From TrEMBL:
The lineage of its organism: Eukaryota, Metazoa, Cnidaria, Anthozoa, Hexacorallia. Belongs to the 5'(3')-deoxyribonucleotidase family. Pfam families: 5_nucleotid. InterPro entries: HAD-like_sf (IPR036412), HAD-SF_hydro_IG_5-nucl (IPR008380), HAD_sf (IPR023214). Keywords: Hydrolase, Magnesium, Metal-binding. It comes from Acropora cervicornis. Gene3D superfamilies: HAD superfamily/HAD-like. PANTHER family: 5'-NUCLEOTIDASE DOMAIN-CONTAINING, FI20020P1. It comes from the Eukaryota. GO terms for molecular function: 5'-nucleotidase activity; metal ion binding. This is 5'-nucleotidase domain-containing protein 3.
Length: 291
């Protein structure tokens, strides 16, 4: 972080119930290494919170322009002659009501097309605060979980339905916290492997993740047996049908102010590019009439 005199890098691994904790602290160019054996998750979480407070108290945070655009490399925009835009969540910014709508339509699709119980619609409502973008769904075990960039399961993020799964059960199911890359991206490896971890990365995935969790919660509570993989496929297909059927687009078109945020600077941006002789194009999988 720019402007910080103190930096900390924490390296740890969990093996056989014992975590080896290595911390490298850099203070104004000087570094020192601390090593400590952690014997419990609680102790590790306490140490993590302690170091987090240390960094926040030591760092001088520079003010950041929230409207600025940051790039990893220098880019001379004057040399760019053609600009392409996606539609959903780029030119079109949706309100939170869109996720409620997708969820409600997908629930009806599950009930009317796939024969799921009516009680799901009656008892299980959309919770916008339940899930975050980028979670994985495990179709073997029916779990929603967060996996970091190194394929480590983030403890405390694993849910079966709406219920958190204890860390001990996570260790037992996955034999630790690290996932083999073949479970996440089997296409790069031996033939016959199949993906069991599905990354819910799209912004439209919010209602799908809540739908999966609510259906599992309903089945668990009512002691209804289910196959996680078939359930995932049904929920995924139900959400896709909401888009393909035109029901979603028709509802949004009939009530634009409820589902679309107005971007006052968008027209100015596009007009500025066009008046500067730039070529513009739109690419989207949304229907022509909707756009």
């Amino acid at each position: 972080m720019a402007g910080c005199g103190v930096r900390s890098r924490v390296l740890w691994r969990f093996v056989g119930g014992i975590s080896k904790f290595n911390e490298i602290i850099s203070y104004h160019g000087r570094s020192c290494l601390h090593t400590k054996i952690i014997k419990s998750i609680e102790e590790l979480e306490h140490l993590y919170d302690e170091r987090k407070r240390f960094i926040h108290e030591s760092a001088s945070h520079a003010l950041v322009d929230e409207q600025a655009i940051f790039a990893n490399n220098e880019l001379g925009m004057r040399h760019i002659d053609v600009y392409g835009f996606d539609y959903d969540y780029t030119l079109a910014s949706y309100t939170d009501a869109m996720h409620f709508l997708i969820y409600d339509l997908a629930v009806k699709e599950l009930i009317n097309t796939y024969g799921y119980p009516q009680g799901i619609e009656d008892d299980m409502k959309y919770d916008p605060d339940f899930a975050i973008r980028g979670l994985h769904f495990d179709t073997c075990n029916g779990l929603l979980l967060k996996v970091d960039a190194y394929h480590n399961i983030m403890l405390g993020s694993v849910y079966r339905g709406l219920q958190p799964v204890p860390n001990e059960e996570v260790f037992r199911i996955y034999e630790g916290t690290h996932l083999a890359i073949t479970k996440i991206n089997p296409s790069n490896f031996v033939n016959g492997s199949r993906r069991t971890m599905h990354h819910m990365i799209d912004l439209f995935s919010y209602p799908e993740m809540v739908l999966l969790s609510n259906v599992i919660e309903f089945f668990q509570h009512n002691e209804i047996p289910y196959d996680p993989e078939y359930l995932f496929r049904d929920c995924q297909q139900a959400v896709q049908n909401v888009h393909r059927s035109g029901k979603l687009y028709q509802t949004v078109t009939n009530d634009i102010d409820t589902y679309l945020k107005r971007s006052p600077l968008l027209g100015e941006l596009l007009q500025s590019l066009a008046s500067s002789g730039k070529m513009l194009f739109l690419i989207t999988n949304s229907g022509f009439e909707f756009v």
